[in-house]
Amino acid sequence: MSQIRITKKFSFETGHALYGYDGKCKNVHGHSYKLNVTVIGTPISDQNHVKFGMVIDFTDLKKIVKEEIVDVFDHATVFNKNTPHVDLAKELKDRGHTVLLVDYQPTSEMMVIDFAEKIKQRLPENISLHSLKLQETESSFAQWFASDNE
Ligand SMILES: Nc1nc2c(c(=O)[nH]1)N=C([C@H](O)[C@H](O)COP(=O)(O)OP(=O)(O)OP(=O)(O)O)CN2
Ligand SMILES: [Zn+2]
């Protein structure tokens, strides 16, 4: 049976700041992120299976990505916890804002690496993560490919 890639698209609004960066993105600002998640597998061939003909039910893929990424990052502001931004994060949290402290500089590259690890851990054994595309602006995106990271 053929190996097939299927993709589901997600979007979320997230704030961030790049501490120490030499440009305008050192300021707290936000993006309407777009995330394409592509998995690969063989469509289920058992005619009696409720998911007959599917690599993975798009609805099941949506649940995983929503729980791991979208619901966590949407309308949160992300800071690198290894920088003085922790003080700003604490102030915002104390004032009731949703803040996410991560162990990396929150660039598209580092976020897509984080997302790949989180999604891989939740996929069923017979399905692999093929690639992710994280779009920060209309003209800027980062991609993660399993084949580049074997
Ligand atoms: N390699 C990376 N470079 C930059 C990142 C990043 O994640 N990886 N991030 C930023 C900023 O956070 C922000 O995304 C600005 O990027 P840029 O594409 O320059 O945004 P603009 O709005 O100026 O882009 P347009 O060309 O107007 O669409 C900076 N660099
Ligand atoms: Zn940005």
TrEMBL record:
Zn(2+) binds at residues 16, 29, 31. It is an enzyme of class 4 (lyase). GO terms for molecular function: 6-carboxytetrahydropterin synthase activity; metal ion binding. The active site is at residues 25, 75, 136. InterPro entries: 6-PTP_synth/QueD, 6-PTP_synth/QueD_sf. Its EC number is 4.1.2.50. Keywords: Lyase, Metal-binding, Zinc. Belongs to the PTPS family. QueD subfamily. This is 6-carboxy-5,6,7,8-tetrahydropterin synthase. The lineage of its organism: Bacteria, Pseudomonadati, Bacteroidota, Flavobacteriia, Flavobacteriales.
